[in-house]
Structures are given as structure tokens and as C-alpha cells.
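Hi both,

Apologies for the delay on this - the queue was longer than expected. I finally got the adenosine-5'-triphosphate-bound model through. Below you'll find the protein sequence and the ligand SMILES exactly as submitted, and right after that the C-alpha cells for the full complex including the ligand.
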Amino acid sequence: MKKFIRGFGFAFKGLHYAFTTQVNFRVHVFAALAAIAAGFYLRIDAGEWKWVLLCIAMVLLMELLNTAIELLTDLTSPGYNKLAGHVKDVSAAAVLIVAIFAAATGAIIFLPKILTLLVHAA
Ligand SMILES: Nc1ncnc2c1ncn2[C@@H]1O[C@H](COP(=O)(O)OP(=O)(O)OP(=O)(O)O)[C@@H](O)[C@H]1O
């Protein structure tokens, strides 16, 4: 049990490291908080919440994996290495794919509601 709780401590240490050193991770955390706030404000339904939460989890998960891959690459290949560059580029591409998916999902869920709100306000 003690080991299990200690594991949480390491995980929070990892989150703290990513948040304090990675600008992209911070941007995605704030985007996630904005999406959650918008979800409450626009009263999205349970099905829509599932998509929003899935997108948030996927983007943050990929950001964390990308950070870990970058660190490991720097550790194993501190100098210039073409392959190390490819590793980082492919890892960054994986983040881009989920970020595009999340942006498209956000647009599908939120845009119609925002437009309806604007039409009613006009
Ligand atoms: N050791 C290396 N050898 C060759 N190219 C590299 C190497 N390290 C980085 N690069 C190239 O530079 C790009 C940026 O690398 P960098 O480590 O600065 O990543 P980053 O995405 O800017 O991450 P961060 O700023 O969060 O550390 C990589 O995507 C890769 O194309």
C-alpha cells in the first residue's frame, strides 16, 4: 500500500516537472480548463462530456509521452544525431495528430452552441 501511494508521489513529481518546464504542456492544461469551463457554461450533455474528457486526456497523455521521449533522446544522444532528430520529430507529430483531433472535436461540439448563443444575443 505504501509503495502504491509512493507511486502517486512520483507521478505528481512528473506532472510538476512537465508543467514547470514545458510551455506546450502548460498551454494544453489551460486549453483543457477552458474546454471544461465552456462545457459547464454551454451545458453540454453526458455524451459530449465523454468526447471532451477523452480529448483532454489524450492531448495531455501525448504531451507527457513526448516530454519523456525528448528527455530520453537527450540522455542517450546529447550531441547532434540525425536519428535523434527523427525521434523527436515523430514524437512531436504524434502530439500534433491528437491536438488536431481535439480541436476538430471541440469545434463540432462547441461551435454550433456558440453560434446559437450569438444568434440569440443579436
Ligand atoms: N540531438 C539532436 N539531433 C538532431 N536533431 C535534433 C536533436 N535534438 C533536437 N533536434 C531537432 O530539433 C527539434 C527541436 O528539438 P527540441 O529538443 O528543442 O524539442 P522541442 O520540441 O523544442 O522541445 P522543448 O523545447 O520542449 O525541449 C527536434 O524536433 C529535432 O528536429
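Main takeaway for now: The two ends are 58 Å apart (CA to CA).

I'll put the files on the shared drive as well.

H.
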